[in-house]
Amino acid sequence: MSGNPPPGMKSLIFADCLQILKCELDLLSPTHLIMLAGSSWYEPFVKGLIKCWHPGSCLNDHFAAVELWDSYCAHAWQVQIPGKSHLLTIIGSEHPQRKAELPHIKALTSLIAATMTQAPE
Length: 121
What we know:
This protein is an alpha+beta fold. It has helices at 7-28, 39-53, 101-116; strands at residues 32-36, 63-69, 72-80, 87-93. It has three helices and four strands.
């Protein structure tokens, strides 16, 4: 098949993909994660990670910033990974294919700069 997996397949693999991502983040301990996929793809992962690390917490509790670019938005959330001394900033934005590059780059770098100066919770 070509293109994205159908919704049924997407729901079948989500839990495993979320667990793999969580393990990678625990192991690599990055300060920033950038997800370029569109909100219907990245938001379930952001919500899932937050739920794993902070049960009872929601997406809005960790919202850090938003940047507009063209007719799109890039969002940032910050979350403390248990056992880590720094916050993880998760940035979600549209897939860049066939979109203006410069406004997207400016939005992403602005979010990174804005979240680099915020102190841990």
